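Budget justification aside, the reviewers requested a transparent look at the raw inputs and outputs of the sequence design task funded under Objective 1. We therefore reproduce one unedited record. The lines immediately below are the structure tokens for a 267-residue chain.
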């Protein structure tokens, strides 16, 4: 039995991950974490997640929760995840991170910290999005520079980071396939007389509203034709099931920072 603890357990994703852990085979829930002072600290996490009492209370004691698990699943925010990665590295435990909004420097730090332990860091844990990422590489390589690339993502009005981690990863994959540097060609803002579109740029557009779980479309726009590669999430459950799949996969792997393409064998 692999012992899984969940950080951000009372959050939108955390609650779904608790449900996915108890539904999965070969794993058991060993702990649930929230930030110090969280109003749900001390409550049974199963009641908070809507799946009935589990006998695991929400804790704010990071070190105790990590000590009791084989792998921590963390869907919170970049700074919290980096702190948790460091704590897992000290205790030689594995970690699966789903948080998004990492700066390039924070991602570098994650690579450094994961030299000690096996860790998965992925902006999207659904099978569908990861298959799209693989397809995007092929499509971009085949189309080359003749098609303009624009990426549009839609999410709920509580999302804190923009563009989504998934949209950024899609942009990175396309840019790399086209021999471009994503950080130089991503265009996040057009307003006023900003001039004609450059050939190299990848437009990144963000929509926020209501309860949209997550939708991503990559447009390849040519002269007289257009390809759209879209993914629409209808529930959060394929993210949470993906995180449990990653947790089962990562325990026992060589130290290093892996992503969901590694977990799903898509590389
Ligand atoms: N990789 C993937 O497949 C997916 C990734 N995500 C990403 O996951 C992250 C979380 O999303 P979501 O669940 O919607 O966000 P929520 O805000 O609903 O959940 C985050 C939870 O983490 C808690 N938290 C904050 N600080 C700490 C801390 N120091 N220790 C423990 N818990 C803490 C929050 O508490 P409080 O509310 O009190 O701050 C909250 O309960 C985002 O970055 C999102 O983009 C989302 C879906 C899929
Ligand atoms: O915050 C969310 O909700 C989501 N975040 C991830 C991202 O930023 O890509 C994945 C998913 O689209 C939901």
């Amino acid at each position: 039995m692999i012992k899984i603890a969940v950080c951000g357990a009372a959050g939108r994703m955390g609650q779904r991950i608790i449900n996915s852990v108890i539904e999965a085979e070969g794993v058991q829930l060993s702990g649930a974490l929230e930030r110090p002072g969280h109003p749900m600290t001390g409550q049974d996490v199963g009641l908070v997640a809507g799946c009935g009492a589990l006998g695991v209370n929400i804790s704010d004691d990071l070190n105790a929760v990590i000590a009791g698990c084989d792998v921590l699943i963390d869907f919170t925010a970049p700074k919290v995840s980096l702190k948790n990665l460091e704590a897992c590295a000290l205790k030689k435990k594995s970690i699966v991170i789903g948080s998004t909004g990492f700066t390039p420097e924070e991602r570098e730090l994650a690579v450094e910290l994961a030299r000690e332990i096996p860790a998965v860091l992925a902006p999207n844990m659904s099978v569908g999005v990861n298959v799209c990422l693989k397809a995007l590489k092929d499509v971009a390589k085949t189309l080359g520079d003749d098609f303009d690339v624009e990426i549009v993502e839609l999410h709920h009005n509580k999302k804190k980071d923009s563009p989504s981690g998934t949209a950024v990863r899609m942009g990175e994959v396309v840019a790399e396939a086209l021999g471009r540097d994503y950080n130089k060609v991503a265009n996040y803002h057009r307003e006023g007389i900003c001039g004609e579109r450059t050939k190299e740029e990848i437009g990144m557009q963000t929509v926020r509203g209501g309860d949209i779980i997550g939708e991503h479309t990559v447009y390849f726009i040519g002269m007289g034709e257009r390809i759209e590669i879209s993914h629409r999430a209808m529930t959060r459950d394929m993210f949470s099931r993906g995180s449990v799949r990653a947790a089962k996969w990562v325990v026992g792997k060589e130290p290093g920072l892996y992503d969901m393409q590694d977990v799903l064998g898509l590389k």
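The first strand starts at residue 2 and ends at 7. Residues 156 and 212 are 5 Å apart (CA to CA). Computational costs for records of this kind are itemized in the attached budget.
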